[in-house]
Write a structure and sequence with these properties.
This protein is α+β, with helices and mostly antiparallel strands and 137 residues long. It has one domain. The protein is 63% helix and 16% strand. It has 6 helices and 4 strands, in the order αβαβααβαβα. The protein has a 4-stranded antiparallel β-sheet with strand order 1-4-3-2. α1 packs across α6.
Length: 137
């Protein structure tokens, strides 16, 4: 093999390697996005409310939360005023709320109470049973 052929072969190998690595990253990103969408579907099934960002200040505040993770929030005036989402009925309730923020896909978040969170845990359990069969298998 002459020098020109060896150089061309190295170039082709490099391009193929880069393409394969890029493909792997794309596949990982696609799978992660699917997992997030699946989780969002389960959140809604449990009763979480999907709420879209209401403006730049709200969006900036939402970006302070860990993205795509269910987070437990205390019912504090600061948190609630920034989110600006509670109904009067919600404000009368005390306790804990849960938020799942997805800025990347929808500039939105999912919001639920302690009761909703407990329903979500039940939905997760049902999903595991459906995916893997009964717990005894």
């Amino acid at each position: 093999m002459n020098t020109a052929t060896k150089g061309r072969t190295k170039q082709i190998a490099t391009v193929l390697s880069i393409a394969m690595v890029s493909g792997l990253f794309s596949a990982c990103a696609f799978l992660k996005k699917e997992q997030v969408q699946d989780k969002e579907i389960l959140l809604v099934q449990a009763g979480f409310k999907q709420i879209f960002s209401s403006g730049p200040e709200n969006l900036a505040y939402l970006k302070t939360f860990k993205q795509e993770d269910l987070i437990k929030l205390a019912n504090t005036p600061d948190t609630l005023s920034h989110l600006n989402i509670l109904t009067d009925d919600d404000k009368l309730k005390s306790g804990t709320y849960y938020i799942f923020v997805d800025i990347e896909d929808c500039d939105c978040f999912y919001w639920g109470s302690e009761e909703t969170y407990n329903k979500y845990q039940g939905v997760l359990q049902q999903q595991k049973i459906a995916d893997f069969g009964s717990p005894g298998n």
